[in-house]
Amino acid sequence: MQQQIGISKKFSDEELLLKIRTGDNPTIHFEEIVRKYQSKVYWLIRRMVSCHEDASDISQDVFLKAWKALPEFRGDSGLFTWLYRITTNETLSFINKRKKQKLLSVDEIAAVSQKSYQSETQLSEELIETKIQNAIAKLPEKQRIVFILRYYDEMKYEEMAELLKTSQGALKTSYHHAAKKIEKFITS
Q1: For residues 108 and 92, what is the distance between their CA atoms, to the nearest angstrom?
Q2: 142-to-27, 78, 95 alpha-carbon distances in Å
Q3: For the chain, domain boundaries
Q4: Spatial contact of 137 and 113, defined as CB atoms under 8 Å apart
């Protein structure tokens, strides 16, 4: 039985990359990569910017950039790690551009986050999540990224070190400080 175009069977990342590079319907196989990782990419972005529209726009930019950069992807890291690096860089660029344009300060981002999450929340566990999101928005950039990758995405320190180009010790310290600041914010 032959596979129809547009209907995918499950391929590993390596198989998808090989099919893309050999010209075997590259856009179809890249769409499979997008389907596989779009939710993780979106939620990583959303936790950093808190606005659905911005997260959707950045997510599209991430996959467009990945598509364009795919020929240069050497495979030194896993595809997932490579996409996270692009996601993190694109999101940080967006945040820095906003800061330069002075459209939103960190406090304003926290206020937007609080309002958007409060409008969606009804249960006490959702209120806790709102407090966590507000606390995360107040963290320094590096601590915020490390906390999100470790707490929400359960990324190992080894993978984070590769992604963020820093030592595991520095990441553990950043995570510890971030967790303490969040705890203090939530309990005060």
Answers
A1: 17
A2: 34, 22, 13
A3: 12-104, 139-188
A4: yes
* Alpha-carbon gap, residue 22 to 180, rounded angstroms: 49
What is the rounded distance in angstroms from the CA atom of residue 107 to the CA atom of residue 104?
8
Q: Which residues contact 113 (CB under 8 A, 6 or more apart)?
A: 50, 130, 133, 134, 137
Question: Looking up tokens 């995918």, which residue turns up?
Answer: 8
CATH T-level assignment (fold) for domain 139-188 = Arc Repressor Mutant, subunit A (1.10.10)
Check residue 1 and report its DSSP letter.
-
Residues 107-134: tens digit of each pLDDT: 555 555 555 444 444 445 566 677 777 7
pLDDT in tens, 38-69: 998 998 888 888 788 888 999 999 999 999 98
- Residue among 113, 157, 161 nearest 136 (CA): 113
Q: Which of the two residues, 169 and 112, has the higher pLDDT score? A: 169
Q: Do residues 62 and 90 make contact, with C-beta atoms less than 8 angstroms apart? A: yes
Looking at 1.10.8.60, 1.20.1250.20, 1.10.1740.10, 3.40.20.10, the CATH number of the domain 12-104 comes to 1.10.1740.10
